[in-house]
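Lab notebook, bench 4. Continuing the backlog of folding jobs that were queued last week. Each job is logged with the same field layout so the records can be merged later without manual cleanup. Today's entry covers Multifunctional methyltransferase subunit TRM112-like protein At1g22270, a 117-residue chain. Filled in by technician R.K.

JOB TYPE: sequence-to-structure
TARGET: Multifunctional methyltransferase subunit TRM112-like protein At1g22270
LENGTH: 117
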Amino acid sequence: MRLLAHNMFSCNIKGVMNGFPLRLEVEKFVEKEVDFSVEFLRNIFPKIEWKALVNAARSMGYSQLPDAADSSMLNSDDFLKKFHHALLELDLEEGVLICLETDRHFLVNKGIPRSLH
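JOB STATUS: finished
OUTPUT FIELD FOLLOWS
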């Protein structure tokens, strides 16, 4: 599961007021090379919850993203490469997504989150 997908998931259990972001507990992740597209990164940037991406990347041991980011940074090749790597190339293979509100655990097995119980 790429961090792009993680950034879009939330806990949808009945009664949950704020099921985003889900905390990651990483057992295994892999890095998969993905074609680099500046256009894609610039288009997806406004849709990304930055703090959630930074925390998820750090849970995988990747600490190259700045704590905060704004659209002016999209002109930096260095920033774009780091953003691309975190968003698209870090892939959670095995682990758990945890709802911070309910402490509900959703297993990730072979890169697929199991959100139904």
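OBSERVATION: The longest helix spans residues 77-89.
SIGNED: R.K.
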